[in-house]
Amino acid sequence: DIVMTQSPDSLAVSLGERATINCKSSQSILYSSNNKNYLAWYQQKPGQPPRLLIYWASTRESGVPDRFNGSGSGTDFTLTISSLQAEDVAVYYCQQYYNSPQVFGPGTKVDIK
Amino acid sequence: QVQFVQSGAEVKKPGASVKVSCKASGYTFTNYAIHWVRQAPGQGLEWMGWINAANGNTKYSQRFQDRVTITRDTSASTAYMELSSLTSEDTAVYYCGRAAYIDVWGKGATVTVSS
Fold first, then answer.
1. Which residues from A are below 8 Å from B101, CB to CB?
2. Taking a C-beta distance cutoff of 8 angstroms, is the pair A78, A72 a contact?
């Protein structure tokens, strides 16, 4: 099974500052035939289901603010919140959907400093 | 709009089984897979398995292989997840969602296992 790790476990960022979350897969999740990375990012607020932010590692879901950006390829990925807003306080998860089991990372909690 | 309505909260005794439903609307049910994900209290997301809504093929996490069954009823646009031999460690919120990168999620069904 592919193992997904995230760093840091948590971070606190001042309003308007950048937040960076890293995600690493234990093997490449880049499918060579279509050159797509099978990596998604989700945001989850307390008491709510997760919300899809990014898929194919860098494609923003409709309605997601453009301050959320995904990057990376192969085994190393990053979610960047360019200017943290109060409503971005949440736990963020990466997930590989390259193969089953479609494992999630352990999550990164983002707070306001 | 696309949405899932999941069944209500359940309280079960250890050793029992639970069946959670997930009714889809707003799209063609057979065009997308349905995935099941659970979240224990204060914990992260755990993928359980998925079903091809068109042909009924399933794939399960090895962790639940012997205990989980995912089915669907295309006439009702509904998917089901049944988990057997429950223990307290199965206490969690169970979510259904659409497609491999899950773009639409149900609100979740709380399952509590307690004697």
1. 40, 52, 55-56, 95, 97
2. yes
